[in-house]
What does this fold into?
Amino acid sequence: MRVFLLVWIAGATALGAETVPPGREVYGKYCAPCHGANARGGEGPSLFRSRVVVTGTREALGRIVREGIPGTSMIPFRIADEQIQQLVTYLHSITRPGEGPPVAGDAALGEAVFRKAGCGNCHMVNGAGGVLGPDLSSVALRLFPDQIRHAVLEPDAAVGEGYRGVTVVTRSGSSVRGVLKREDNFSLQVLRQDGQFALLSRDEVERVNLDKGSLMPKSAAAQLTPNELQNLLAFLDRQRAPRLTFTLTFQNY
Amino acid sequence: MSKRLLLLISTVCVAVSAQQTDRLRDARYANPDNWLTYDGDNTGQRYSRLDQIHRGNVKRLVPAWAYQFVKLPLRSEATPLVRDGVMYVTVGGAQAYALDARTGRELWAFHHSIAEPPKTARQQPSASGADWNRGFALSGNRLFFTTTDCKLTALDSRNGSVVWSTDVRSPEPCYGSTGAPLIVNNLVLVGQRGGDLRIRGHLNAYDVETGKLVWKRFTVPAPGEKGSETWPATETWKEGGAATWTTGTYDPEQNLMYWPTGNPGPDDYDGSNRKGDNLYADSVLAVRPEDGSIRWHFQFTPHDVWDWDANETPVLVDAEWQGRPRKLLLQANRNSIFYVLDRSTGAFLLAQPFATQTWAKSFTEAGRPVLQPNVIPTHKGTRVCPDVHGGTNWQSPSYNPKTGLLYVVARDSCGFYFPTGFSIDSESQTPRHFLRAIDIQSGKTRWEIPILGTSEILHAGTLTTAGGLVFFSSREGQFMAADAETGEMLWHFNTGGTIRASAMTYRVGGIQYIAITTKGAVFAFALMEDRRN
It folds into this structure.
């Protein structure tokens, strides 16, 4: 999901100037050199992890832009107040899902669709469900409604880090199927489909076949009627459990 | 030719090469037990003559001790120094420690309280400086380091007391310094950061004893000065960039320092208001220590609109070059090109890509790049390789005179460039990192090791030793050693924290240690049988 958002923003950037909001220009000029073109961090931290950006007031964010954070690389920016307001609006628009009007549809019926379509086999909601896919309890605070729709309809478009399907064939000839949580030069950590971790050393691995697409079946959404889909999206839009942490995946290196 | 003859010739070559390196090395760095500068000595080679830990026994390397920092800094980029069994290390921008290098026990601690830097008088961002630095320089009983409030401070190495502290900003606003200072003769050399912040780059030389400014060399010429013809007849040069934010190198025989510079400004990706080559941005300068004058310069990326700072270490090597001994300067540049220059004259000898690049078609006899079409940033976005983070960056390369290879943490990437900024093209090619061993004679990569599981940017450098080893790291904290000759992976240890520093090595009581700074600790490693309690 996180990768999806990144791609979406990068895509919007590549499309050109005609649809760029004014705050995006301001961001590109002053903020992107450190926080990255997509605000997910570069030399400076990701703004999607910044409390003041994600939960603070407009005034607090504006003050930081204007005055900087002493003792850090966040310098004060002496730019026009109008530009600061445009910048704040832009940052809120990309980092704060869940603040718009609720998505139309019957969320209770949507929950039934969620169960019927088997979403819960892989996705946990409020402590119940599977573990292979991302937990959806706060999905509406992480993704905008059109992003959720896209993720449901086009699961292959992007697969988040830690959720890619993988088949690992070991030297002894057995094969491990699951999602690849982490890897480096020496080891792999796979969450198997049965919910157990397979912790593998490269020495014992013959080959690693990463899935091209997502483990999530595209057919699941395709079999829904337009009404069912709308209700499912309404159900997902109600998933706004308070986020306990901003570190949604692994340690931010 | 028989194998034996080949072996003999290669042994002779290595011996000649080692002798040449000995001559190039400043006498004060003669004892290989000590690691006395950011790069170990004055050459930038990051090569240690210690060979107790070698390719045959490195598998028995284990942690000897760790020292955990009380306060987690934003970044730990420092290389520790060691002299006579004492380790000196800076942590983040404001902490520093002396440790028993055999045990990691603290000898003294220094905590600097950072005052809020004053606002700039000019209508432009005032950089408060970065809250990290890359370590100490050492001369006599004095340790020199820079802090975020634009101070160059000298500590007494015996108790951590402040001997003097000089404000390095005057008359400019506070830009901050992050590079470890360099000692040359009786001078301490300090560069500054802020190349993207509308500054005019400069290099300052201070008296080791008194902290008084001896000279200041601007890296962007004023109107009328040599090089000013590469700027428009406007005020742009005042914000021309060319920051000096890493550590230079020094050739004592020629009494010349080599200091690299960063990208031009004021707008990194929009060159329309700074037409011309923009000297001395993205260059290496051969500077006379006595007065800061420039003997020669070489510009790697004229009129840079991609933010490809040339601040990578200028590595000094004396070696055979096309049949005769030559004084060389090597640089693996952020623009993905490996360069060889004659460091006496600045003459261009070789340019060869070592990482993905789509911007340079060829090079003229003088080493000027001939651009590919359609590489200038546009509002639609121009796709160029490498991306803004480059084919490499400040992470230290290392050169092993026994192999003739330069070890570089390289990065294959592409990006979109706009006049207002950049993005990484992670759709068509996720940036990938490698340890690459470059044959300095041809510029070709002899072997490479992919560094897996790393994030988009990797700023952990290398160390190479006479034990036939090269040490390197992943961002996530895997500290690794490979065979310097063949690239075979021999050893690794998961430190469990971000590494964005380069390793060093030292010997105390006859025992060789390898040390690396991670985000939260310094680790020292020794062979299992040599580990002390």
